[in-house]
Automatic annotation (TrEMBL):
SUPFAM superfamilies: YbaB-like. This is Nucleoid-associated protein C7381_11113. Homodimer. Belongs to the YbaB/EbfC family. It comes from Ezakiella coagulans.
Length: 109
């Protein structure tokens, strides 16, 4: 009967996992504090969001504010906001990818 003394390896692995978690949280926070600005309609509508996907600013060129065409204005804001969200998602995915590349853990990350 063999006695496996793997406690040291397990302890070392747990320290690495804790460091990884801490590093990932720091990177998440870094991305959350970034701002992502996207324009639509050739620059007449600009939406800025933070990494938490909260809109922080909307800038509209006065020429696009037409009371008879509110639908176009709504479409411009929606397009810019959706693209900004995609940009923030892509940045978060790229940031987390540095920690998860090479790991095969479906559904975990």
């Amino acid at each position: 009967m063999r006695n496996f003394n793997g406690g040291g390896n397990m302890k070392n692995m747990m320290k690495q996992v804790q460091k990884l978690q801490k590093d990932m949280e720091a990177k998440r926070e870094e991305v959350a504090n970034q701002e992502f600005e996207v324009s639509s309609g050739g620059g007449v509508c600009t939406v800025t969001i933070n990494g938490n996907k909260e809109i922080t600013k909307i800038v509209l060129d006065p020429e696009v504010v037409d009371p008879d065409d509110v639908e176009t204005l709504c479409d411009l804001i929606m397009a810019a906001a959706n693209e900004a969200i995609k940009k923030a998602d892509d940045e978060m995915e790229n940031a987390m990818g540095q920690f998860t590349k090479g790991l095969n853990m479906p559904g975990l990350f």
